[in-house]
Amino acid sequence: MTELLKISLPDGSVREMAPGSTPADVAAAIGPGLAKAALAAKVNGEVRDLCRPFDSDAELALITARDEAEALELVRHDYAHILAEAVQALYPGTQITFGPATDDGFYYDVKAPENREPFSMDDLPAIEEKMREIIRADKPLRREVWSREQLIAKWESEGETFKAEWAKELPENEELTVYWSGDDWLDMCRGPHLESTGKLDPQAFKLMRVAGAYWRGDQKNAQLTRIYGTGWLNKKQLNAHLTRLEEAAKRDHRKLGREMDLFHLQKEAHGSVFWHPKGYRIWRELEAYMRRRMDAGGYREIKTPQVMDARQWEQSGHWGKYRENMFVIPDEVPNTEEGAELISKDADWMALKPMNCPAHVLVFKQGITSYRDLPIRLGEMGCCHRNEPHGALHGLMRVRQFTQDDAHIFCTESQVVEEVRKFCELADSVYQHFGFTYEIKLATRPEQRYGSDADWDKAEQELRDAVAEAGMANDEFGWEELPGEGAFYAPKLEWHLTDAIGRTWQVGTIQSDRVLPERLDASYVGEDGEKHRPVMLHRAIFGSYERFIGILIEHFAGRLPAWLAPVQAVVATIVSDADDYAKEATAKLAAAGLRVDSDLRNEKINYKVREHSLAKVPYLLVVGKREAEEGTVAMRILGEKEQRVLSLDEAIALTGEAATPPDLA
Question: Annotated active-site positions, please?
Fold first, then answer.
């Protein structure tokens, strides 16, 4: 008698199944509802197709739409394959390459046939319709194991040069799989996939845009077209996503930055920001706020050089791990002779600092430090440069020159948990002042790293303990661990902020580092009179001023809190008879410490109201002949429909209260 397979389910029950059975068979045995809802299976922790037979006894969990994250990745993977199939069906001769799922959808890189131009936005409606046709056809998605030679022969015979090139590089001893869509189209893929195309909702995806891409990401290779789409479990989710995108477009910090005259970027300084007076006022207010918070937290502010010798970066480990992102500078006078080499081959090298950490260690090392001096908290509004690719630059969010609210805490091992706990509480207070909710994640050791496993064990546990002592290691704060996502020298806590439309931004961080103090020979004299290594905590709350300002602009849709607004109030006249009173009111508001302008132009008041509303001025104080006679103002608060008539003194008090920074209120 054939021995049955024992399949353990999440509720603790065990199903006995015949050899050759599949997760789909288990779902059907449990009930028709589950058989219909099941999308894929997790077998011994590995996500697999429903129709892939069990190899042996196994633990099984069935994935349905309720397992949203896993379900979305599955359907997006399928949408990508269907996109490639649709393009080849419509445009024979198209070569396909690869197409993964993304955070909100999918893409596929393709090469248009020689007889036509690269694909464009005009092609997307036809491709979408063909995809829906494939989905409605409910074509079974079938897995097969092929040999490397079969794959190469298949792709070469069909003129798929990119796929053939990739197949030739696959390991000979690796199990290679393809997936058929029906009996007429296949792609090589590890999977998993849904049972059939009909498991997808034909109304739950949309092709969004096209972009240029290079084969294998190398600009020396052939240029491809990348077709992007967004894919969801149902149309309701798709519509919600499209609404979010529409709202995000309205909040785009680049658009609002132009409208509010805050900053601009131009090719003469790729990835660096030209701050206008109003934009730099926001920066100055943030900087003043952060200085007050750091002063109160026992930090001492320092300033370190922009350029340091390459040998320093070699010693710190950045030259080997991070050099491709650094701007390097020859340490010699350039040759001015015409036709001669600009720089000699013997030049030493320096680099613009991409981070402040090594310089802070050098400050710490000056003089003899006792254990009694610890912890030492060194802060710097440090300007850094990173050589980001041109294509990766994005407004304020991804730049080449940026300034961090950076600090490093040098402490003993026994002080680490307390210092990290204090930082958790400081970060919480700061984010609350800006109205953000957040989640805390622990990013643990990556595969490529410096330091011993014992030191990593200790550092990771210290961070866990600190978050627990702060009362934040729970679901309320979204606490979870991110295996393998730490820096090459330290594990780190990350703060992921949620903005007004539900997007998340990783901003704050604290890292527990034993590597850099060792590499740069930092030490303190312990109670025993011997030298000891300090632990170095790298920490930031804003992350970078540029990016944080971009996030704030989008979070508030430009309507910044009054204390951050570049112009907090405008006094606008209805008639010229009120000019003198408007000047008097403006002077009194300025004397009260408010950033105020007056608008005495010979324009209709509705025009002035509209213009200052577009500029996102929080308070508009309208004055006419009656207000001048009565010593009042008609106050319009941004975002409110009704205006209030107040005495000038009341208006100054109300505006002044709203314009007080939250840490001083």
Answer: 357, 386, 404, 406, 408, 492, 538
